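Journal club prep — side note

Before the paper discussion, L.F. wants everyone to see what a predicted structure for a comparable chain looks like in token form. Sequence:
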Amino acid sequence: MKLAIVDNQDIFREGLHRLVEAENDIEVIASQNLFSKLDKEHMKQMDLLLIDIDLLIEERSLINESVFSDNTDIRIVALSSEINEEDTMQAVLAGCHGLLLKEMSYKHFIQAVRMIHEQGAYIHPQLLHYVVTDYRKLSKNKNKLLNNGLNSMTNNICTKREHEILQLLVNGHDNVGIAKELKISEKTVKNHLTNIFRKLNVKDRTQAAVLAIRNDWVTL
């Protein structure tokens, strides 16, 4: 297994690098403080990318272009310093295959890494309940929409422009990126998002994106 570590905390990154290098079946091919510093050769070789959740969010567009757009087999593992819902849902929306806590014991950490590599996914148990809770909320929203006969989002709920914005949101674009793609103002994007949240009966972009994915309203 070949992996890259991206974290802006030098002590954590270098310490993890040394621990992982001691494993007979794992090779650390890159260790950087930014994803953008990984070269193309690293991208071609690595099986797993371990990256700090804040850097994942900060460089999400570049990661989408470099990893997901090329249909690579790279699995992304987000690393979080704390237990919170925002990090969990950001990791899920970014397409991560795993979400691990930095405070985990190394034994459990490396077991989780191997599980992601072999089985495809792992979310730390202390974070998993956020995913379940959000899924339950979205299931209720979905039932409300179906009960109202609104099971076709494109035709019955959102306008064509709102659908375009929802697709870009799921693709990982922030408001600035959406505005640039559609050649509209950021203020207009915010207004459209407000309308989307109201129509889908959701509170934020995370719930809107997950609801759209669950109902196949967007392409991945």
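L.F.'s comment for the group: The chain has two domains: 2-123, 130-214. Keep this in mind when we get to the figures.
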